[in-house]
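Summary for the steering committee. One of the milestones for this cycle was to obtain a three-dimensional model of the protein with 1-deoxymannojirimycin bound, which we needed before selecting residues for the alanine scan. The sequence and ligand used are listed below.
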Amino acid sequence: MTGILPTYQRFVNGVPVPSISRRSFRLREKYLIVSVLLTFGIVWLGALFYLPEFKSSTSVNDSVYNVYKRIQKAGPELLMPPPLAQNEVGEFPVVGIVRHGEEGDDPHLLEDRNRLRAKIEEDMSMKVLERPQFDIAPSVSSSRGPSKPPVDALEMPVAGNNALSKDVSPAGPKAEGSENKYVIAPIPPDTDIDTKHKLDTIKEMMRHAWNNYKLYAWGKNELKPISKRPHLSSVFGGGDLGATIVDGLDTLYIMGMMDEFREGRDWIAEHFRISEIDSDLSVFETTIRFVGGLLSCYALTGDTLFRDKAAEVADALLPAFETPTGLPYALINPSTKASRQYHWAGPNSILSEVGTLHLEFTYLSDVTGNEVYRQKANRIRDVLNNVSKPDGLYPNYINPRTGQWGQRHMSLGALGDSFYEYLLKAWLVAGGGDEQARVMFDEAMQAALDKMLRVSPSGLSYLAELKYGRIFEEKMDHLSCFSGGMFALASTTLSNSLSDRYMDVARKLTHTCHESYDRSETKLGPEAFRFTGAVEARAQKSNEKVYLLRPETFESYFIMWRLTKEQKYRDWGWEAVEAIEKHCRVEGGYTGIVNVYHANAQGDDVQQSYFLAETLKYLYLLFSDDSLLPLDEWVFNTEAHPLPVRGRNPLYREATPPERPAPAARNL
Ligand code: DMJ
């Protein structure tokens, strides 16, 4: 039988097998090929009409027309979604919101778009952004040396009650007499020209830090000012929590930078969603920076957005408190609600972390009327008050399952510091109402001063670290330089047997911290400094030689200036401003430096969020009039977010208790 398809030469065992060769198809074969091709064509065309996009058409004519249009404009977009266009503020459109009939509701298309968007965002965060995303006035950015303030810094609109636009106007209960005290940002007209220049310079530093964060890392947590891109491995990770925005916002407000304040406020309103974060956050850091920052903004403005967001953040942290003692675990994933400890701390929580929630949590209860936050904070307080303390001292580690101390390591620096600060400040912010806190503070400080306060051969006082009741290291952390201010506040707010000693120690410790700055080539202070015979107030190990844009020394200068009015504190603060401008300012913001003893120090490429929240705020307040955030009406949390003093400050904004429903009439 002859085949119907063309044949070709065949071989069997390498020998050609004779075959019949032909030049053309037979007629029967031609018919068959044509009818197969026709069938394919009809099926292909017909299938097009069953695509979802065409199915919605009401008539056959429409369908045909749609097919025609579709084919006419066929291009790569038939296979790939078109690139997303950025809007005028550099954002990508929200992917899920497509108008019906325009892009279609096809879930596959949406999925493709989502994937593409994620990819673009990932690329953007990895890349050095060359072009500004925002249309803003460039900040003065000479990279070395203090700069002259820009003209507009001298003419900023007054930030008072009336300077707020509708969307930021006070919405919460208005405190009596708040109109004149709403915020006192303008520089008083009788300010001398030198002080005014200093205030304007610091304000311009804030603008430089903010603008560059806005250009290169907006919505991310922190900025890498040298590489000009987001800092994805910050303490809050690479998520979109806007740590720099939330942390820096009250500083903008206090400095009267209202345009920037509104930008930040709008970002929080539109984008800040902590419950969507699927990574571990520190309960402590999130409380002091986010809850604290938002509560300050609420107190200053009365804008309930800030209060509600603060409650949202605290709510996301609450699962971490589900322990047998109520002492929280260190880390929480807001999305999965899973908690855990730091690997390096074993089963323990850290004293400074569990002990630095009280101010924020109690104030949050007062302004929301929700008692749950206060209960959490009080439970921690009770555990720490009741546990027996070796020699009256608090070790840095405590197990939240057993309520027992871990390693007996004590410090007023890292791991201990702000626990002590919050004992004093809980008493201050309660307007003297929290007696227990003040008693705990005085007892702890008496023990700490007796055991930890040391004097170097040349007469420098410092706070050493202890282990099992003995001196462990003759070293003081930069972090413990906040203690000068703390002792001064303790001295001037209550007269007792310790008050004189407190003020003496405050002066001496602030002096030593200044020495640690003065003894470096850059005039910036190291992360830790030692006292070992010949070496005094200098770092020895390389990881101690860094300056991370920290604020603690300036915090003490500010408090000491307000309480003593000794000019040297302002002089030291100005030296620090000049040193930061010289060594930390770069075109893309402010960077920490890796060695304070090198005149041309290399940058660490991180602009910490606390640089905006604390460092610049304390430096600004050091040169401000005392009427800006007076110390008897405001207490600064450990991240420099001011909280109002209960009973003294009309901006306390305590929630009015909900009205009790009238008792229902009883059927007798
Ligand atoms: C800030 O986040 C807070 O001051 C905290 O208490 C410890 N240190 C950093 C800044 O150095």
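Key point for the committee: The chain has a mean pLDDT of 81.
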